[in-house]
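Chapter review: from sequence to fold.
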Amino acid sequence: MSRVDLAIIGGGLVGASLALALQGEAKLRGWRIVLIEPFAPGDGYQPSYDARSTALSYGSRQVYERLGVWDKIAERAEPIRQIHVSDRGRFGATRLRAEDEGVPALGYVAENAWLGHCLWQAMDHAVIDWRCPTEVVRMEALGDGYRLLLGDDTSLDCQLAVLADGGRSGLREQLGIHVQHTAYRQSALIANLTPSEPHLGQAFERFTADGPLALLPLADNRCALVWSRSSADAQRLAGAAERVFLDELQEAFGYRLGALRQVGVRHLYPLALSEAQEQVRPHLVLLGNAAHTLHPIAGQGYNLSLRDTWALAEALLESTAPLGDFATLQRYHRNQQLDQQLTVGFSDRVTRLFSNDTALIAAGRNLGLLGLDLLPPAKRWFARQAMGLGTRLHR
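The token string follows.
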């Protein structure tokens, strides 16, 4: 039976970011950290037209700067210099510009494989022990931590277990942690595409009667598409011929980037808002999608998770109590509650407001978009939310 101080269950972007945030101080304190992941990371980054990507807010850039990995990430992170928000068939629109906010970019879009590569390469393997490919099949609460039973028939004990294994966490269910789940009755179509005109760092949020869509700038003049439709219609579009798909998307989006010329592999994801009713227990923390899963249209989910990750690392490093101390974990959660509530509420309200096409609501949101351009304080608040700076100052 081996014993570690901290076990991070899930070596994706959230788990790897937490390991990086802790590794410097862990080395000084003699902490043993293990990162458990069922999928072994590749030996090197390989660019792909169809690579999935993540929108990083400006606040997330600040976190990765503190972790010393931003310069590497920035090599293939496409800056978002402008966000154009519009409502199809109506005049209401607003534009958020980086120069108006005094920042080099409102956010960035990077391929998940590149992000993972940068994070994994920065890890000190003298401090972070990788256990992969394997997974935790069962967790048993102990008086001073948890016992983890692994898929390779080994086990280990830890003072603190961090559950970062995604929104479909079987361990969360096994531990009896209730999840409040609100289905949006939509699915997101995710794909990369190429427009005929340069995107020039523009991101687009376009709201239609059938559901919102976003186009985000990627390297090599590609764009990442997130298109929300009713589940049945999304299924139809996922299997449609390329020309049929592009024609329907063109009609919904318009010609702001010229003709849409190529679309890659299409993926479907059912959309819902999920929130774990417990995020901390003695010796246990839920992070990332295991704690909360948001609608992707406002691009807030991963950025909120990264802020949670940074706040947890700060709380652990500032505490003089043993790892897993419940008061420390409760203090972390209290400090993040406002951020979580405002970000989840912002994402949910935007989704519901722009997925409702009744005449009165449509007219109201049309006026709201026009008002953002006319009221600088309201526009600045909206921009700070989009940049991940809405609820706390980033020093």
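Two observations follow directly from the output. Confidence is low (pLDDT under 50) at residues 359-375. Residues 2-47+122-180+273-351 form a domain with the FAD/NAD(P)-binding domain fold (CATH 3.50.50.60).
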